[in-house]
Every structure is written in C-alpha cells, then in structure tokens.
Amino acid sequence: MEDEVKPVRQPQRRLSPNLEAVVRAEIVKLMDAGIIFAISDSKWMLERLGGHEFYCFLDGMSGYFQIPIAPEDQAKTTFTCPFGTFAYRRIPFGLCNAPATFQRCMLAIFDRLVGEIMEVFMDDYSVYGDSFSHCLHNLELVLKRCEETNLALSWEKCHFMVREGIVLGHKISKQGIEVDRAKIETISQLPPPVSVKGIRSFLGHAGFYRRFIKDFSKIALPLTKLLEKDAPFQFTPECTAAFETLKEKLTHAPIMVTPDWSLPFELMCDASDYAVGAVMGQRREKHFQPIYYASKTLNDAQENYTTTEKELLAVVYAFDKFRPYLVLSHVVVYTDHSVIRYLMSKADAKPRLIRWILLLQEFDIEIRDKKGAENVAADHLSRLEAPPVDNFVEEIDDSFPGERLLAMTLVDSVTPWYSDFANYLVGKQLPKGMATHAKRKFFSDLKHYFWEDPYLFRIGADGVIRRCVMEHEMGDILYQCHEGPTGGHHGGNCTARKVLQSGFYWSSLFKDADSFAR
User: Fold this and answer.
1) Contact partners, residue 319, CB within 8 Å, separation at least 6
2) Distance between CA atoms of residues 390 and 373, nearest Å
3) Cβ 458 vs Cβ 465: under 8 Å
4) What is the pTM of this model?
5) d(CA 52, CA 18)
6) Which stretch of 250-264, 372-386, 437-451 has the lowest confidence by average pLDDT?
7) Which stretches make up the Reverse transcriptase RNase H-like domain (predicted)?
8) What is the 3-state secondary structure (H, E, C) of 383-436?
9) Contact 312, 335 (CB under 8 A)
10) Beta strand 465-468 pairing with 504-505
11) Chain-centre distance of CA 104, in angstroms?
C-alpha cells in the first residue's frame, strides 16, 4: 500500500444462522492455516436471547479499568489538574475507541461461548439455558472463564436463574421480545411537544421500538412533516392524534417471537399513497406470529409511482430491511396485488422494475396472492368496495371452469367489456361469428393482455401493467380520481391519466372521464 492511501472500513454485514454456518466453515479453515485471527461482533443478541426458560444476567465491575493500556500509548491519555499532570495505565472513560476495544476484549475472553450459551454487550453478560440444569451448567462455564482471565463481576448487579430480564432496552423471556415497560411509561406521560426539537426527541424515543408498531411511518406522518425544512410549526389535531396513537401503540405493543431458522419466513407487504409497510413472521401451529414490523414514508418521486410499482416497492423494501433474516431461507410473500407474480417472470418491464426484480433474485421466494381484506397484518389502504354477492344471479359452474369463468351475468345484464379477451386467455374460446379482419384485430390486441386469476391485466404502451376493471367499478374509480383527496377536480384528460397512474384501465376510459368531468 502507498503511504498516502487511507484504508477503507466497511461495517459488518449481518448474517443469518443459515449463512453464518457457511462463513464459519471458511473462517475456521483460514484460522487453522494461520492466515487470520478472530475479531467478531454479532448483531443477533436479542434474537438469540429470546425464547429460553432460564437466564443469568452478570455485570462487570469497573469494566474499562480492567483493561490495561500499552505502555507506549499511555502518554496519549495525559491530563492535567491543579495537583499535577497524570496519565492512565488502564482504559478511562471518554476515549473514542474505548467501547470498541473493550467489546473486542470481551469477545476474545469468552470466544466460542458467545452465541452458543451466552451473549456479551460491553460489561453485561447474559447466560441462558432451556432448563434449570442446562442454564446452571452454562453459568459454571462462564464463571470459570472469568476466573481464568481475572475478570471481576459486581455481584450486587447480578441476577441468577431468572425467567426474564431487561437487555438493551428490551424485555427478554420465554415468550420472546417485548418493550421495556419502564421506558414506555415514561414516554406515555410526555406532554405534546411544543417545538421541532420536541418532535424530533419524541420520534427518536418512539422510533427505538418501531419494530413493535405496525404502520409506524404512516401513523407518524403528520409529525414527520413538521420536521421538513421551512415547514411552519403548527401542531394540528392530526398531529395530536398521531402523538396519542403512537403512545397508545407503545403501551399495548405486542410480544415479538424469536425466529426459528428451520421454518420458512412469511412476509406481508402493502403500499398506500404515502407509505409502504411490511411485517415479517413465521407460521407456528397454523398461526402467524410476527417477528418484526417495518414501514417507511415515500419521497416525492415515489409518491408518483403507479399502484403496481408501489406494491413492488413494498416487497423490495421488505427484503432489503429483513435481508439478514431471509438470505438462504424460504420466504413466502403475501401481497394483494397478483400482478407481482407476473412481473417476477417478465423480462421486458420498465428498467426500474427490472432492477428491483434483479434484487430479489438472490432470495428463495414464493409469491402468494391474498386479498386486501385478508391481509390484516400489512394492509392499510382504503380499497374500493367489492360488489355484493347478491348482485350476481348466476354462480360459477365448477364443472366447466374454463368455459364459464366469466359467464356470470349482472342484474342489469351488463357483460364485461373484456370478456372476449378473458374467455380466450382462460379457455381458448373465440367469439362466435367473428369476421377475418376482426380476428386479426382481436389477436393484435390480445398480445397486450394477460390473465392472472382472478383479474385481467393490460400492458400499456408505456410498459406499465394495469388491471382491467368491470363496469360497476368504473364510477367509483372516476369519483376517487376526480373528487377524492388526491383528485383535484381536473378535466377529463387529467382524470383519465390519474386513473392510469392508479393502475386501472378500460377501453372507454377517456370518453367516460370526459363525460364524468362535465
């Protein structure tokens, strides 16, 4: 290396236990060859601690003062006072590299015990076991290591053979990971903030537990808008509602289970106009149990995405957020937008969508459709109401699914405008009495459509995929895009473009939008 070149430091990447086994095998091989020496730091403390029967929590005594400073570096700690000039022989508080040095020292002392029977964070040592005798045996191994290295403990702060405890601001127990109720009680008693600094402080404290709060970004949106540059500070009723809702959510925060690496993970993702959200969990005994909630607000550019792009953005965000958990694990993704399954196998989509899809290729993904009403863990959108079942006078005949899939008739005898395309894509059934030139036009138009049960989708000239809607949905869609909260009462062309941006299409869209706007 040249003298003027500065070394590059990169943060450690989190590894799931599945991937960790592969990395460990390579590390052991290099260590046995004498090529490397071990300096490790794990980010999985809470996940590994939760879910055990018994715990022992140990506390080091005067932690920093137990670590000597190299003689050639002692002069760097020199300080002066009225009684003379002094230097430290052991690590004092206040050195910028003291925490990292102390943590590396603790990891070197306990070595292979970390991650197997205990976790270490600075001078706090947590020992665990699945039974009383198992935990007692693990405690014996840890105390023996302390004796061998002359590591002193503060017995007044130690707790032995307990079933729960506080670690890194979280309550750890057999049930999983919970919030620290003492901290939550302090937050719940806070008065409404009266300045931007107060808003930032509250969101910082509440954000520490955001993994426990579904739709945190959406709830906190009125508060985060007050943090924007040059935004006037007006604590509106919406801000008060968001402030009280966050305190209420924290007070009743659920218990998060620890991941079982032998089971597949499940993701439920959804997007609204201003935020995307996801929940990661696992299904145990046929019940979905959450592990982590995540959400983020959309920036100005992302707010202009189509519905399809926002739904895929939610999936990409979830995989990016939970990547350390999901690598080398089977992942089932539930989303209420079935077009995503088609996009995963489509190569001629927009460049942005292709980049997102490429990011998902390293994961073992299974896409499953789930209606918005059933996607209770992540769905926070206002959806168009589905037509009542009583509107149909003829049910689908299960014995002829291909021929009768779209053969149901509404009370007003309106046949869907896209029934010819759908019937051909599903059952290869051509419309009767079609002339030769009409057939050519039919097949020319057909290449722009595809069927993804239970919807028909159209690929527009701009490469965006939109859902074809039936007649009874058109009025509600036009109303929302023209007179809804984001409508703006624009003219026919603007309203039609708003419909297209929302991910919907029908053949007479521009004509209907012009009539509606008039």
Assistant:
1) 267, 326, 331, 359, 360, 363
2) 19
3) yes
4) 0.52
5) 20
6) 372-386
7) 260-363
8) CCCCCCHHHECCCCCCCCHHHHCCCCCECCCCCCCCHHHHHHHHHCCCCCCCCH
9) no
10) parallel
11) 30
